[in-house]
Design a protein that fits this description.
Elements lengths: L2 E4 L2 E4 L1 E4 L13 H13 L4 E3 L8 H9 L8 E6 L1 E3 L5 E7 L8 E6 L3 H15 L6 E4 L8 H13 L6 E4 L3 H10 L4 E5 L8 H11 L2 E5 L31 H21 L3 H10 L6 E5 L3 H8 L7 H14 L5
Parallel strand pairs: 3-4, 3-13, 4-5, 5-9, 9-10, 10-11, 11-12, 12-13
Antiparallel strand pairs: 1-2, 6-8, 7-8
Helix pairs in contact: 1-2, 1-9, 2-3, 3-4, 4-5, 7-10
The protein binds NADP nicotinamide-adenine-dinucleotide phosphate (NAP).
NADP nicotinamide-adenine-dinucleotide phosphate binds next to strand 13 and helix 9.
Amino acid sequence: MLQRPIAGIETSAIGLGTWAIGGWMWGGTDDDNAVAAIQASIDHGVTLIDTAPIYGFGHSETVVGKAIAGRRDAVYLATKCGLVSGTDKGEEAFHSTATTIDAEGDVIVHRYLGPESITQEVEGSLQRLQTDHIDLLQTHWQEATTPIEDTMAALEKLRDQGKIRAIGACNVLPEHMERYRAAGTLDSIQEQYSMLKRDREADDLPICIDGGIAFLAYSPLVLGLLTGKITPDRTYGEGDLRSKQKRFEADNVAKVLAMLDQFKPFAQEMGLTMGQLVIAWTLHQPGVSHVLVGARNAQQAIENVGGAVELSPEIVNQMTAILERHRPNIT
Ligand SMILES: NC(=O)c1ccc[n+]([C@@H]2O[C@H](COP(=O)([O-])OP(=O)(O)OC[C@H]3O[C@@H](n4cnc5c(N)ncnc54)[C@H](OP(=O)(O)O)[C@@H]3O)[C@@H](O)[C@H]2O)c1
């Protein structure tokens, strides 16, 4: 498995994302399949696992903790903070009816990065993950009520205490990065980045390259769309966010499949599935150090690991040219 560093520690360039494993927003989950996906990933060379307290309101972290029990040292554990329920501080983010997982009924979630809240959240994560330290703690979404300097001071204190080893931020703008970096050491950022979402590339990636900051691309398969396995007639379970997204409407899916059709000769030449080819293309973009790929079961997890392959510059360039021709027609 290709290795790339985060804060000087080598981790697998392909990380397992465990949002869907929490069930919430993904129409439920199957814990046995989720544990199998995590364990198969580790068996096949994945060391980086990304989770968050909000994924299934603790459920994803609990399942990750269970799956890695006895193998903690084989894993670089990344989790997050800053999306919290049960507070009126920060900024209201969304309402959720989390009746299927740990929380019950109507839950109001706030973006809040106050020091006392982060410290409390970390204790919960450590317990659910069954560990004494988090390798990478990332602020999940940014909010304006807490100065970034205060948030960073709390994170650096947790690092000094050994509870966390590295500090990251998700969903940031360059000005956020600047403030994090002025107040401490920012080791990584995590952003939505895929063939269909490259709008921040020119802003973010040069800063990461210059500053030695790892860039963790999330949703690189666009929630499965770029595997080519989602057809226009696909239906989704109740509560699956894809059922409400324009991207997953039949006519858009057909356009995506038409683009992926043009990638098929490259997939055949390289002996890759479409998802693997897309993951490989993403890992070849300058500045993208890691991709976080979600998987529901062992089969998907094992397939996705196969995306850590080298592509020739010709293949990467030809894919990019095809992508740019199709992109204006795709949502
Ligand atoms: N920081 C943030 O704000 C943020 C936001 C979003 C995500 N993330 C992180 O990034 C991770 C990855 O992103 P993501 O989960 O949103 O999307 P993704 O990786 O683009 O897509 C994952 C989904 O695609 C389908 N899939 C994956 N591998 C497949 C395969 N080999 N064959 C067929 N289908 C396959 C599965 O869904 P089905 O089987 O149901 O089709 C899976 O749940 C998340 O899990 C999370 O850790 C972070």
